[in-house]
Amino acid sequence: MDLQLQGKRALVTGSSSGIGEGIAKGLAQEGVTVVVHGRNEKEASRVVQEITADGGKAFVAIGDLATDIGAEQVVDRVLSNLGAVDILVNNAGVYLLRGWMNSTPSQWVELYNINIVSMVRITLLLVPQMRELGWGRIINMSSGVATQPTSTPDYSATKAANLNLTLSLAKELAGTGITVNTVSPGSIVTPGLNEIMLQIGFKQGWGTDLEQIKQYMLQGMMSNPTGRLGTVEDVANLVTFVSSPLAGYINGANLRVDGGWVSTIN
Ligand SMILES: NC(=O)c1ccc[n+]([C@@H]2O[C@H](COP(=O)([O-])OP(=O)(O)OC[C@H]3O[C@@H](n4cnc5c(N)ncnc54)[C@H](OP(=O)(O)O)[C@@H]3O)[C@@H](O)[C@H]2O)c1
Questions:
Q1: Nearest of 90, 29, 86, 36 to residue 61 by alpha carbon
Q2: Which residue's CA lies nearest to atom 47 of ligand 1?
Q3: 3-class SS at 191?
Q4: Is 155 among the catalytic positions?
Q5: C-beta separation of 188 from 234 below 8 A
Q6: Using CA atoms, how far apart are residues 253 and 153, in angstroms rounded to an integer?
Q7: Distances in Å between the alpha carbon of 94 and those of 50, 135, 253, 256?
Q8: Mean pLDDT score of the chain, rounded to an integer?
């Protein structure tokens, strides 16, 4: 299937690692010029080098999206190099393992700023040029915990907000040629999730063998009908399709890629 992505331009936030890295590589393989973003320049440059070595086109933009100035820095670099972007993947985010009673109000505000306001910043800066193009794709990275909250209440709540703002933005951009969708992964093996699994393993007294901890997790809180944890390619394949012109009638949707982990119909 020709996804008709050849020559398009994408910014994937948080693509110096994990799911974002997988998405950047997936889009580059389809002929998209990709901006690899993060705060860690060394890691972002590694991803660019790997994409280039594979015959793709990519460059780095560094900036902390938790600040206005960091977001402006990223968008300035993107627009001065590419003129415009057709595809924005709002993927950057953090997750933290803390319960209701041991998180402070300021920690809630901080996490909301990183996981939600960051994507609002970039979206507000890039939507005007997408409107001028008369075409665009915005994909916001949420999580299965948005609709099935777990023991991470503040993180889960940020991901629920993500679903809500996706739909209101899709309505705001009616008739512009821009679609806005959410992708909600389940448990995807990344450096970020590995760190969380090691913390859980430590608390549970399961030792420090990550492969062993993964097996325990699969029998417990990450149990799903597919019987395995997800890969970054599982998410990248979906995002690549939703980015394409072929996905023009998918709009305002929450698309799950979780092996069946969320136990609701929609
Ligand atoms: N892995 C999972 O199981 C899973 C499941 C559901 C949803 N998700 C979501 O998927 C996204 C990616 O997760 P992941 O597992 O791939 O995480 P990861 O490996 O920890 O990568 C996170 C990425 O976000 C960037 N980032 C974080 N805070 C940032 C900030 N303030 N400014 C700029 N960049 C920032 C990091 O960049 P630097 O390190 O360069 O700063 C990194 O590139 C997150 O939104 C997460 O909530 C993950």
A1: 36
A2: 93
A3: helix
A4: yes
A5: yes
A6: 23
A7: 24, 29, 22, 19
A8: 97
Catalytic residue, from 112, 155, 216, 249: name it: 155
Using CA atoms, how far apart are residues 75 and 157, in angstroms rounded to an integer?
27
DSSP secondary structure letter of residue 21 = H
149 to 92, 233, 235, 260: CA distances (angstroms): 20, 24, 20, 15
Reply yes or no on whether the pLDDT at 219 is more than 90. Answer: yes
Q: Return the half-sphere exposure (C-beta side, CA atoms, 13 A cut-off) of residue 160.
A: 12
Q: State the residue for tokens 């003129």.
A: 83
Domains of the chain and CATH, by start = 9-188+231-257 (3.40.50.720), 189-229 (no CATH)
Q: What angle do CA 247, 249, 254 make, to 5 degrees?
A: 80
CB 16 within 8 A of CB 43: yes
Residue 178 contacts residue 88 (beta carbons within 8 Å): no
Which two tokens mark 53? 């070595």
* Ligand 1 mutation target, pool 67, 91, 195, most atoms within 8 A of CB: 91
- Measured by CA distance, the residue closest to atom 6 of ligand 1 is 143
pLDDT 10s digits, 35-86: 999 999 999 999 999 999 999 999 999 999 999 999 999 999 999 999 999 9
